[in-house]
Write a structure and sequence with these properties.
The protein is α/β, with parallel strands linked by helices and 200 residues long. It is 30% helix and 28% strand.
Length: 200
């Protein structure tokens, strides 16, 4: 199985070990100090497939996600994007989804984790005006501010809910969406939406 981990940082795909057989994992993130060149990774993947490798391999690449997906010839069995899609500007979301569709074969999956804005909106609407967050305002406010806005240098630029995920991924007939779970707990916060998008 060949896996692309978009905006990976130090996060490993949650699907690792769930599928039989070896995997070749490419972690993509512009923050890496050193990494493999995209063209070298194409050669590595080609040899790995040709030789029928029986061992797991892991590589790091610091290319921009759009540039990588626009240029690569590698076809992946899985694409993972955890806490990444919300950083894609709204006017580029459909193009991003299109690019993901060009590197997945029919039946292959994208595994997506994003903040669920239904949960975040409910947190705001349920605030007591006299006592927001029931006496724990600082922690409550940190979650809301981080997940709605993030840092100025790396802002959140698109809004995701189960309904929006289904709409955008199914709009052009490239994917079928399934919701694994809302209120998904990740990194100590249970405000995430995890869904899969199957390439049609």
């Amino acid at each position: 199985m060949i896996i692309l981990n978009l905006g990976a940082g130090k996060i490993q795909p949650m699907l690792l070990g769930q599928d039989k057989g070896p995997h070749l994992l490419i972690n993509l993130d512009t923050s890496y100090y050193s990494a493999w060149e995209p063209e070298d990774l194409e050669d590595i993947v080609s040899l790995w497939k040709k030789n029928g490798s029986t061992i797991d391999m892991e590589y790091f690449c610091k290319e921009d996600a759009f540039t990588f997906m626009e240029r690569t010839q590698i076809m992946f069995d899985r694409v993972c994007a955890y806490r990444f899609l919300e950083h894609i500007p709204m006017d580029r979301v459909l193009y991003f989804i299109y690019l993901m569709s060009t590197i997945l074969k029919k039946g292959d999956l994208a595994d997506i984790l994003v903040p669920d804005y239904n949960i975040l909106a409910k947190m705001i609407l349920d605030e007591d005006p006299l006592d927001p967050a029931g006496g724990n305002f600082e922690a409550h406010n940190i979650i809301l501010t981080t997940e709605l806005l993030n840092e100025p240098g790396c802002p959140h630029a698109s809004i995701w809910t189960p309904e929006r995920a289904t709409y955008f991924f199914e709009l052009e007939g490239r994917f079928n969406v399934g919701i694994w779970t809302s209120s998904y707990k990740f990194d100590g916060r249970d405000i995430y939406l995890r869904f899969w998008a199957e390439r049609l």
